[in-house]
Amino acid sequence: MYMMDIVTAENVSRTRKQPAHQHAWVVESAHHTSEGQVAYVRCVSGCAARRIDLRGAATVPGVALSKVVGR
Length: 71
Hints:
4-stranded antiparallel sheet; about 10% helix
């Protein structure tokens, strides 16, 4: 089991329905691994959702490694 697979009951209970919107992701932190760069991102469009992205080569867009978890 990976850390990104763990969702606590507390996090689920704080999750609220938000109107649908286009996420605008900003990188909070990042580090390099053998697979590429792992970036921890947060939505700045008001919902505060978070996800983890894996960025490979510079010519390839990042791929979400986790589901969006947010308020």
